[in-house]
Amino acid sequence: MSGSATATELADRYQAAVDAVTAGIAGIPDDQWTTTVSDETRPIGVVARHIAATQQGIGGLLRQVTENGQPGPSFTEEMIDDNNARQVGEFAGVGKAETLAVLAEATQGFDAYIRGLSDEQLALNAGTFAGNELSVAQVVDFVLTHHFLGHLASINETLSA
User: Fold this and answer.
1) What letter would DSSP give residue 29?
2) What backbone phi and psi angles, to 5 degrees, belong to 133?
3) Apex CA 61: angle with CA 124 and CA 133, to 5°?
4) pTM higher than 0.70, yes or no?
5) Domain residues of the chain, as ranges?
6) Cα distance between the two ends of the chain
7) What is the CA radius of gyration of the chain?
8) Angle value at C-alpha 33, between 28 and 36, nearest 5 degrees
9) Least enclosed by CB within 10 Å: which of 3, 110, 119, 143?
10) Rounded to 5 degrees, what are φ and ψ at 153?
11) Which residues neighbour 130 within 8 Å (Cβ) at sequence distance 6 or greater?
12) What one-character-per-residue DSSP string does 91-130 give?
């Protein structure tokens, strides 16, 4: 299947974000892995692993939505906050190598998947996130691309402080 021009643009931005985040995580000094991110309440390693977990979950969700055409679920602000809080304990002992491996596996070929989407698939309702109904395209752009880069910026700001 051949995707749209919009899909190609989204895929390019997404892959650039993945490349930047992967390089950023790889460059985190081991002795800084447990440092708390300055504008969050989580250690750098937990935030890095959160990025990989988000890709796993959201990537699977988007594939379901585009395959069956049904809207995705609703995620309230409370659900998102609870998930982030749960991850602090769940990912506390996860190291950089494991985080990079999970991220690589979760992102492998996802840019090609995005490139193959039609404009109709990009417009599908991917779900409601903190009260905002988002299309597949918006989830790729905001939840994956900008969300990833926002966390990377927070990590980098912490490391440079």
Assistant:
1) -
2) -75, 125
3) 45
4) yes
5) 5-160
6) 47
7) 16
8) 115
9) 119
10) -60, -40
11) 75, 76, 77, 80
12) STT--HHHHHHHHHHHHTTHHHHHHT--HHHHTSEEEEET
Q: What is the pLDDT of residues 28-80, one digit of tens each?
A: 999 999 999 988 889 999 999 999 999 999 999 999 999 999 999 999 999 99
- CATH number of the domain located at residue range(s) 5-160 in this protein: 1.20.120.450
Tell me how far CA of residue 63 lies from CA of 31, 34, 104, 122, 130, in angstroms. Answer: 37, 33, 17, 11, 21
At 66, list the tokens.
Answer: 């585009």
Largest CA distance in the chain: 47
Burial-class residue 59 by CB neighbours within 10 Å (0-12, 13-18, 19+): buried
Tokens 């796993």 correspond to 56
